[in-house]
Amino acid sequence: MERAALFGNGREAPMDAGDVGELLIPYMPTIRVPKTGDRVYKTECAFSYDSPDSEGGLYVCMKTFLGFGREHVERHYRKTGQCVFMHLKRHTKEKVTGASGGALPKRRNTKLFLDLESNGDLNNDDYEYEDEAKLVIFPDHYEIPLPNIEELPALVTIACDAVLSSKSPYRKQDPDSWEDELQVSKHANSLVQMDNGVRIPPSGWKCSKCDLRENLWLNLTDGSVLCGKWFFDGSGGNGHALEHYKEMGYPLAVKLGTITPDGADVYSFDEEEPVLDPHIAKHLAHFGIDMLQMHVTENGLRDNDIKPRVSEWEVIQESGMKLKPMYGPGYTGMKNLGNSCYVSSIMQAIFSIPEFQRAYVGNLPRIFDYSPLDPTQDFNTQMAKLGHGLLSGQYSKPPVKSELIEQVMKEEHKPQHNGISPRMFKAFVSKGHPEFSSSRQQDAQEFFLHLINLIERNRIGSENPSDVFRFLVEERTQCCQSRKVRYTERVDYLMQLPVAMEAATNKDELIAYELKRREAETARRPPPEFVRARIPFSACLQAFSEPENVEDFWSSALQAKSAGVKTSRFASFPEYLVVQIKKFTFGLDWIPKKLDVSIDMPDLLDISHLRATGLQPGEEELPDISPPIIIPDDPKDGMMNHFMEPPDVDESSVMQLAEMGFPLEACRKAVYYTGNMGAEVAFNWIIAHMEEPDFAEPLAIPGYGATAYPGITGPGTPGLDNQPPEEMVAIIASMGFQRNVAIQALRATNNNLEHAVEWIFSHPDPEGNETASEAMVMENHMNANLLAESDPEGPRIKDGSGRYELFGFVSHMGTSTMSGHYVCHLKKEGRWVIYNDLKVCASERPPKELGYIYFYRRIPS
């Protein structure tokens, strides 16, 4: 047999059935039939945006079911030795015309078997598609056309049929998926609600059992607010909502933060799936939540808001203007997958920054060559793929001239790629996240911080492009009574500016508009022309720098609660400054709303006057004393009469931080000293204190005699033979030590986790624990690498001048972050460009005054 010219138009010479079967025998162990749960990528390359529509088609590995474009299939073959691939190609041809010159009558096309989207650049009435599949054997590129039932072994035929009929790999397998069609709960019509007087406020919620403030669920029977389950990425909760159901049997709960006039996310614990509740408005009203004051039209807008919101949509998208399309490198659009514009807008801005271009696209060959066997599940691979897709120009080519189209159509149309579909990228970065993994609209600011977190956790060696956003904030807290102060530092990645509504320069117009609007509403007339508040940027900057009151401030100087104020300043200025305008809020009537304002954002920004100054002459620092532990008046356990209650430490936040590689004791102190406000706040405490000599020492609290672990009793305290807490035993066991050794070490060190590990190393058992010790040393080295992000001077920052110039902004249209649309404007090559999903055009009037997130770059000194 001669080698087929796979990358040309060559075909393998016909073979009889015996030859085909004999040819495949050596490769049979590498051919699998997809099982339930296997993801088959038959529409998109793992390393590029090539598909069966592409000129070279797509190669699907018959063992891993990963898809590869022509440029990347050889890499997979070299890395894995996998030889058998299914090659998929969709051909696009001009339809045959009838005698009268028109297209022949439509008939069912039996030559289509790939679940692909048709090319939007083509008129489907003029073109027809034909799908082709064949097996290709590497390295000699032998081709076996499909279907070939008579000649192929039965196993191969079954495997090929299963691959071709497989569903999308992005169909969610998780039972918490919200993408499948929801069914009405069997409990909705007969739900009994307690008349217990519970009223739920529009904000400030927390779990009634653990004080968690995210992923909270309102039980529709008794009004209890409890946290949801724990997600692998560190988000989620402690599962108290499910525990409450198991204890009480109340079946339905609604997720707080998802309530809109369109409905809410409802989960049935009894049915173990998301459900519909047709009476959700009545069930929420029982607890004081009125979701029906805002009547929604088909486009998701309130009836009395249509006029102003349409205006907002028109201005931001520059509707009515003849915008010139842009093509080439850096001008590639992104397909909207259904409320995925928040991802597209942020990623367009991110990959306009040179540091991100160098980190991912510049390192693309190395990232791809060293990618894991499943590159679809590797963050850096998917970032490099997305960056290359946006910046290469390969998927942003101008339309072919009409005379060339006629010439091409005589043979075969070669479709022009217009934009990319970020489906694989979004599926990976949102995996396990309760909000981003849904198909609902999200807050672009929250996604930006989520992306930064992923970059931090998956950085390439010592290079971390997110450092360009990183800066230190100095917080000065002052006791109003003693006048003493405390200075602390935390890390942040964006500057949040409040909207100073009281500083509007058109107050008279706003008052007149509001009067007319109310009159029109009463008389049921059309609303007057909308008047947007005009806010000076200087007023927002001033509001940012003003002192704010500290709730529940405990003064260490007075050793009592007192009034306190806090001011924030920049201890360092980032290379790129991200500014968020805090437009979104909840009304007192529970209706999520956006402050529709116009702010004169400057092209040149100087915040040098916000530079931190540190402790000033004449200022006296607050003593470094922690708040006292409160002893309950009526301890539940009589044994605790002689001992103080252990401090309240949110163990879920502790474990989130510990998984990042920080010492457990430091994590516990961080959570305690930040008042159980969550892992993110505690993380900032760690960054500010990690250079202190007692950073990893156990949490010691004045007046508390034991190490601060929940469940620890004092020496000699009766009960379960001094059995160590199970969670500590599990932590040590996870390091590779035997369970009995872990228990013995904890007992010997009074349940001090750090000392217990040291005890194990200094007391090897007779049989030795060399393997576990080696594993522990390796883990310690890994943790040391994670902590090696800072030099002796402190956390890694790129300090410089506080003068910036605007180069991009993301705008939002709609009434809240849970609805609407995002658009990105970027300044490239001296002119503004609008990125609106797949449309990339030269901007005529960039609406800088209506943005939500602004991107500034530092002006070199």
Automatic annotation (TrEMBL):
Catalytic activity: Thiol-dependent hydrolysis of ester, thioester, amide, peptide and isopeptide bonds formed by the C-terminal Gly of ubiquitin (a 76-residue protein attached to proteins as an intracellular targeting signal)
Binding residue positions for Zn(2+): 207, 210, 227, 240
UniProt GO BP: autophagy; protein deubiquitination; proteolysis
Family under the similarity heading: Belongs to the peptidase C19 family.
Domain named UBA: residues: 648-689, 723-763
Ribosomal protein among keywords: no
Domain USP intervals: 332-859
GO molecular function: cysteine-type deubiquitinase activity; zinc ion binding
Broadest EC class assigned to this enzyme: hydrolase
Protein name (Swiss-Prot/TrEMBL): Ubiquitin carboxyl-terminal hydrolase
E.C. code: 3.4.19.12
Active site: residue positions: 341 (nucleophile), 821 (proton acceptor)
Gene: USP13
Assigned keywords, A-Z: Autophagy, Hydrolase, Metal-binding, Protease, Repeat, Thiol protease, Ubl conjugation pathway, Zinc, Zinc-finger
Positions of the UBP-type domain: 183-291
